[in-house]
Structures are given as C-alpha cells and as structure tokens.
Design goal:
Elements (H helix, E strand, L loop, with lengths): L6 E10 L2 E11 L4 E5 L6 H9 L6 E6 L11 E4 L10 H11 L7 H11 L15 H14 L4 E5 L7 H16 L3 E5 L3 H7 L2 E6 L2 E7 H6 L4 H7 L5
Helix pairs in contact: 2-3, 2-4, 3-4, 4-5
C-alpha cells in the first residue's frame, strides 16, 4: 500500500466572488484518525472537505500530501456526498464502474465490488437498479463504491443527513468498519451524538475560520471557545 498521508493544508483560503467562504486555514490530517468537522450552516465545512479532496482549488495556500509515496503515486482517496450520486445502472455496476475509473484490472472488479457490497449489507441488492433503492440503501451503495477502492483516506459530507435512525445506524456501522480496515476518516456532520460516537478529533468551524481543534472528549467536556460552547448548548451563532 502506498502512503500519502499526512495531508497538510497550508494557509488555504477560498472565496466565491466577494464572499469569503474559508479564511486562511492551516490543518494536518494524520493517518488513522477519525476527524469530525462541526459547525453551523454556512461555516465552510463542505468547502473545506472539497478542497481537501481536490474538487476545489484554493484561492490562496496549498494542499499537500506529505507521506513517503506522495511524490510517486496519486493519493488513494474517495468521497461520499450528502446526496448519493449514482448511475442508472445496477448496484453492482455502480461499484464496478468506480473501480474501472481508478484503473483496477477488469478481472478484479467483480470480486472487489461484491466484497464491498457484502460489507455494507447489500450483497442481495447487487442486481437491482441503484436508483430504485431507498435513500439509506443508496448511501450504503455509495459507501461500498468508495470502500471498494481501498482508500487511504475517505471524505464524508454529512452522509446521514435526512436518514432515519435505523439507516443512520447502518451507515455509522459501515464507517466504523471502514476505519477499522485502515482508512482515515474525515467527515462533516450536524449530529452532535454522531460526532461523539465516531470522532477522535473535532474541528469546529465558524464563519470560515477554525475556532477550535481538540480531542473529542476535551471538546465536548471543556470547549475552549465561547462559540463552541454556544454551539454545544444549542444556541444560534
């Protein structure tokens, strides 16, 4: 396995027109950690995730992979969005297509795709059209597609938004298993209970600035900033 982590953001900033979305930000994402990004709507969480993944280019600063393999191989990374993006194909074909895009040899694709579907509890759905599944099942399909790539780091943008508790539990269980298999997790959520359950590190964003970064227990028991304390108390910021 190639290793491209850690991932460094060095003075990264982003704006849309005159609106500043993310002020100059310096962060490091270490191998093996589960980082949850919290903050109110409009804080810049999704933009930060897209900058890390390379979907957006920063207006200032640099996004750099610092691991020993970063100079010779592209980072093994994947991203799952709040709303699943699935093709008009079967569940299995959605997963194998992702493997094809990443250059996985044809003979390996069915085995890896079926194994990923088995891990998220969708093996029996392999032949079904992906777009007729429930939203929770579609999100698990998206997770399987990402997991099949064996990413070194997985970015998750509010993957359980609008899901019922049962579907949320299944997604969370899959995320835990992906992490146990060796993938670093970076995820946004509005669910404080979910952040407690899944995080090692909390990054708290407000108005495009990193207000606080702390171990999960420290953040929830003794937040260092008034903004974080207000957010945890359910107050509008």
């Amino acid at each position: 396995m190639t290793e491209c982590l850690p991932l460094d953001l060095e003075g990264v900033a982003f704006a849309r027109g005159s609106r500043i979305i993310l002020e100059p930000t310096t962060l490091r994402f270490e191998q093996g950690r589960r980082t949850i990004i919290l903050g109110p709507n409009g804080a810049g969480k999704s933009v930060l995730l897209r900058l890390c993944h390379g979907l957006l280019r920063p207006d200032r600063g640099h996004v750099r992979w610092r691991g020993p393999a970063a100079a010779v191989a592209p980072p093994r990374q994947a991203m799952v969005f709040q709303r699943p993006i699935l093709l008009r194909r079967s569940v299995l074909a959605n997963v194998t297509y992702g493997l094809a895009l990443h250059g996985v040899p044809r003979r390996q694709r069915p085995r890896r795709a079926r194994a990923a579907l088995e891990r998220v509890g969708l093996a029996a759905f392999a032949g079904r059209p992906a777009r007729v599944l429930s939203v929770g099942e579609q999100q698990r399909t998206a997770l399987a597609r990402a997991w099949a790539l064996e990413p070194e780091i997985l970015f998750l943008d509010e993957p359980t938004a609008s899901l019922d508790p049962a579907a949320t539990r299944l997604i969370e269980a899959a995320i835990v298993d992906i992490h146990r298999a060796g993938t670093t997790i970076v995820m946004t959520t509005h669910d404080l209970g979910q952040a407690r359950r899944l995080a090692d590190i909390i990054i708290f964003l407000h108005r495009g600035r990193v207000i606080e970064q702390a171990a999960v227990d420290d953040f929830f028991t003794a937040p260092r900033s008034a903004e974080a304390a207000a957010f945890l108390g359910g107050n509008l910021l």
